[in-house]
Amino acid sequence: MKKIMIIGIDIGSTTTKAVSIEDGRVIHKVKTKALDAVTSATGAFGKMIVENNIQIGEIRRIMITGAGATKLKDDLFGIPTGKAEEINAIGIGGMFLAGRDNIIIANVGTGTAIIDASSDRILHMGGSGVGGGTILGLAKKLLAVSEFKSVMELAERGKLNQVDLLMGDIMETDLSFLGRESTASNFGKMLDSARNEDIALGLINMVYQVIGMLSVFAAKSKNTGSVVVTGNGSSNLLGRRVLEEITAMYKVTFEYPEDAEYTTAIGAGLSACTVK
């Protein structure tokens, strides 16, 4: 029996991801990097079919989304190609990976989008320009480091009390639910002796505290106690540690579904599953 396949492609500002979907199931996943949208999309598509021995005739439709999607005007390789609105794709993909609807999603990429997703509507609640791009951009200037892996390696050896002003620096006792190790001001201390390792950890802590608090506000506004974290930033282990501290303070839990970094590509592909 001939396979009928849909390819979902998320053309991001730094990384492009592609998935293949058959009968509502994600079969293959790839990601690539390139300097422009066309190269990114065609490169991800090519990598998908070559690595997985997919025949062009097996593909019914391609769905693209993301920052670079608007730059593609024509069908790719003669295959009907549609565009999925990015917020809808995140919502659809997030619900699919979470295995339920009525969820709040924090999609952490170059920036961060907060989305309220259910089966009858997907709402962009807001977000922030603070995300992985913030960490990398500041690291290039402050640390002379241009690879995210290098930032993480530095941060793993960092000490937050060298850069952040902590509650223990200004209070002799805990304040409400804020312990002495809680941040009073990001980079509010910045000792002359602070090392690159400390600054790297301070960057990650600052970004994920912003993401975490935006998520808490969104969750509480919808009377829910959990947030599904998707996007590239969902796999940042130091970031997860920051979010765990926020959970302890505000009783909002953060979930990290498998394949969360492919959420938007999955949502784009699934959005076409009812197209005949």
Write a short abstract of this structure:
The protein is built from eight helices and twelve strands.
Give a structural overview:
The chain contains eight helices and twelve strands. Strand 11, helix 7 (237-250) and strand 12 (253-255) form a beta-alpha-beta unit. Helix 2 packs across helix 8, helix 3 (132-142) runs antiparallel to helix 6 and helix 4 (148-155) crosses helix 6. The longest helix is centred in the C-terminal third of the chain and has 26 residues, at 196-221. The chain has helices spanning 37-51, 86-98, 132-142, 148-155, 167-170, 196-221, 237-250, 263-270, and strands at 5-11, 16-22, 25-32, 59-65, 81-83, 103-108, 112-118, 121-128, 165-166, 183-185, 226-230, 253-255. With 276 residues, the protein is an alpha/beta fold. The strands form three sheets. Strands 3-2-1-4-5 form a five-stranded mixed sheet. Strands 8-7-6-11-12 form a five-stranded mixed sheet, sandwiched between helices. A two-stranded antiparallel sheet has the order 9-10. The mean pLDDT is 92. The protein is globular, with a radius of gyration of 20 Å. It is 36% helix and 24% strand.
